[in-house]
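not sure who needs this but someone in the group chat was asking about Hemin import ATP-binding protein HmuV from Urinicoccus massiliensis so here u go. i didnt clean anything up, its just raw.
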Amino acid sequence: MKELRVQDLKFSVDNKNILNNINLEVGKNEFVGLIGPNGAGKSTLLKNIYNVLKPSSGSIYLTGDELSKLPNKEIAKRMSVLSQEHNMEFDMKVLEIVLLGRYAHDNSLFKSSTKEDIEIAMASLKKVGLESFADRNFFSLSGGEKQRVLLARVLTQACKFIVLDEPTNHLDVMYQYQTMEILKKENVTVFSSIHDLNIAAMYCDRIILLQKGKVIDVGRPEEILTEEKISAVFHVGVEAKINSKTGKIQIYYFPKE
């Protein structure tokens, strides 16, 4: 069974098609990257998948069940999300925010966090290197620190399927790779939009290439991240080589004449 299946999905705003006939699948324990230029529809597609936007037509299936027919709490048990938008009206302690990931596992709305909940949350903070920040106020943190706290919340939710929208945004280079290492080692299914093509090459099992609201190619990194395809889609000069240290594709850019 596929963790995610998107079938004939269309999404329109004011009679303008943003997504056109999207079909894709993500298998169990796959790490699948979504790439494409700005305006390709990556965030819009992810918002349809994590149920913030509703498709104009087509269907989305989560572990075999149609997403539109699942209660929100059941969705939260199956899928955790790290979006680009995380505006909060009220300041909270870092540990309180991470504990929100346990909501799907609560049996009552006002249930207090258990010792197990707190242990899971603290373990997640430790994974992202922020266990000493548990009592800090979220608003006092830098953009990168906030991103790592929200990743800890995703891990605390303990879902087998994680959806992320450019999770390495706001992060220093070290933490970009640390984030991807954490996700890769979690033994879960990951579907993520990725801005940095070299990170996509390093960590993805498969890559989906999106352009103008359409899936134009799907395949392994070495099949998608070719000089011809990247140059055509991103309108830059490209040189692609195998990195001698990692054995993965390394992309180099230069102005296109």
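also The first strand starts at residue 4 and ends at 13. if thats useful
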